[in-house]
């Protein structure tokens, strides 16, 4: 089964949310306290997804706010350098800083991230900085859940969603739950539910859907039955190394299996998955194939050091899917 998009658009994907910096531990297999060197990459889930999509050949744009300093300029230059349109990336004029994410790689199974997100520039994007003329040029608007965590970014995103719906732009909601900037579980649940009900496609891990439902150990069947009473037509629920499921409003369920790989760290899996899954959907592939693209892209990124820089090419993904690189599905 395929998923249809408006084809007459300049951009395939416009993402809204944070573009930040990842500082990934260069020394592996040790706790952060003993890690002395880090490599710098552009990070932030929606930026990673846009970068991944652009590397696969999608025409991408980005709506966000950057700090007016060396870090903000590094991010803008990198994003522009990979071919993403940065004309709607605003420079903060109020002294807010870039968000930083430090990563800890204790072992392939034990990796975590430590985010510095106090007063970060990305959460200060205002509704007046989101423009209808831009959004209406895209096939899809990719919304990151973290951008809903504080005002004025929350209202800016809600405006973007309204404009997308008005202009027949598909809204893809990536739940992207990062506890660091949310005030309470109740607030997260309220805003996640609000946007998920309006979105066309919702993507998240099982844990993130539990956050949306403000419950524990929810069942996929209950989640999709509830959301399909509203706008969503396609829901993707990820279960880490156990793979992922895509559910359609018409009642079909597809399973995507993870590919066995030599894991260096597990972060970056979700973003690489989303970029390749969306690339495949936008390119007119079947949902089953899109799940393979997402899983293969994630398997490639978890075997590498970064999230953004490691995003694969179409050839790398297709080699893995066709078994030419010797990897197998789990
Ligand atoms: N250890 C692994 N080996 C191979 N593939 C993996 C592994 N972990 C995850 N994946 C793939 O990545 C997909 C997304 O993973 P996961 O459910 O962990 O997303 P996520 O929690 O959003 O990721 P992130 O850690 O980036 O936030 C899975 O459906 C699977 O295909
Ligand atoms: O999403 C973030 O802000 C951090 C990411 O850039 C990081 O690489 C990661 O955790 C991806 O899952």
Automatic annotation (TrEMBL):
Enzyme type, top EC level: transferase
Question: What Enzyme Commission number(s) appear in the record?
Answer: 2.7.1.92
Q: Which Pfam families match?
A: PfkB
Carbohydrate kinase PfkB domain spans which residues? 12-313
Q: Which UniProt keywords apply?
A: ATP-binding, Kinase, Nucleotide-binding, Transferase
- InterPro entries with a match to the protein in the record: Carboh/pur_kinase_PfkB_CS (IPR002173), DKG_kinase_firmi (IPR022841), Myo_inos_IolC (IPR030830), Myo_inos_IolC-like_sf (IPR023314), PfkB_Carbo_kinase (IPR050306), PfkB_dom (IPR011611), Ribokinase-like (IPR029056)
What catalytic activity does the UniProt entry give for this protein?
A: 5-dehydro-2-deoxy-D-gluconate + ATP = 6-phospho-5-dehydro-2-deoxy-D-gluconate + ADP + H(+)
Q: Which GO terms describe its molecular function?
A: 5-dehydro-2-deoxygluconokinase activity
Keyword Phosphoprotein found: no
Q: In which pathway does it act?
A: Polyol metabolism; myo-inositol degradation into acetyl-CoA; acetyl-CoA from myo-inositol: step 5/7
Regarding protein family, the annotation reads: Belongs to the carbohydrate kinase PfkB family.
Instruction: Report the function annotation for this chain.
Output: Catalyzes the phosphorylation of 5-dehydro-2-deoxy-D-gluconate (2-deoxy-5-keto-D-gluconate or DKG) to 6-phospho-5-dehydro-2-deoxy-D-gluconate (DKGP).
Q: Which HAMAP family match?
A: IolC (MF_01668)
What NCBIfam families is this protein classified in?
A: myo_inos_iolC_N (TIGR04382)
In Swiss-Prot or TrEMBL terms, this protein is called: 5-dehydro-2-deoxygluconokinase
Native source species: Peribacillus huizhouensis
Gene name, please?
iolC
């Amino acid at each position: 089964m395929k998923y249809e998009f408006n084809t007459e658009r300049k951009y395939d994907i416009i993402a809204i949310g944070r573009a930040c910096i990842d500082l990934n531990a260069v020394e592996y297999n040790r706790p952060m306290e003993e890690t002395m060197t880090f490599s710098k990459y552009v990070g932030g889930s929606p930026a990673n997804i846009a970068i991944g999509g652009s590397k696969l050949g999608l025409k991408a744009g980005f709506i966000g706010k950057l700090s007016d300093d060396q870090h903000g300029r590094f991010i803008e230059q990198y994003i522009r350098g990979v071919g993403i349109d940065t004309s709607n990336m605003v420079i903060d004029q109020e002294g807010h800083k870039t968000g930083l994410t430090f990563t800890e790689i204790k072992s392939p199974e034990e990796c975590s991230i430590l985010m510095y997100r106090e007063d970060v520039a990305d959460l200060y994007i205002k509704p007046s900085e989101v423009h209808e003329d831009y959004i209406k040029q895209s096939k899809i608007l990719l919304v990151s859940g973290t951008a809903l965590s504080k005002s004025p970014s929350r209202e800016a995103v809600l405006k973007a969603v309204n404009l997308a719906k008005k202009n027949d732009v598909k809204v893809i909601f990536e739940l992207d739950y990062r506890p660091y900037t949310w005030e309470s579980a109740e607030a997260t649940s309220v805003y996640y539910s609000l946007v998920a009900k309006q979105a066309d496609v919702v993507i998240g891990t099982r844990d993130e859907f539990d956050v949306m439902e403000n419950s524990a150990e929810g069942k996929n069947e209950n989640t999709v039955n509830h959301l399909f009473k509203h706008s969503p037509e396609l829901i993707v629920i990820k279960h880490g190394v156990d793979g992922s499921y895509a559910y359609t409003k018409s009642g079909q369920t597809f399973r995507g299996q993870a590919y066995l790989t030599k894991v260096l760290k597990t972060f970056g899996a979700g973003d690489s998955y989303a970029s390749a899954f969306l690339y495949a959907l936008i390119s007119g592939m079947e949902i089953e194939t899109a799940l393979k693209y997402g899983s293969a892209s994630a398997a490639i990124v978890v075997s590498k050091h970064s999230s953004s820089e490691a995003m694969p090419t179409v050839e790398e993904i297709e080699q893995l899917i066709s078994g030419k690189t010797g990897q197998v599905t789990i």
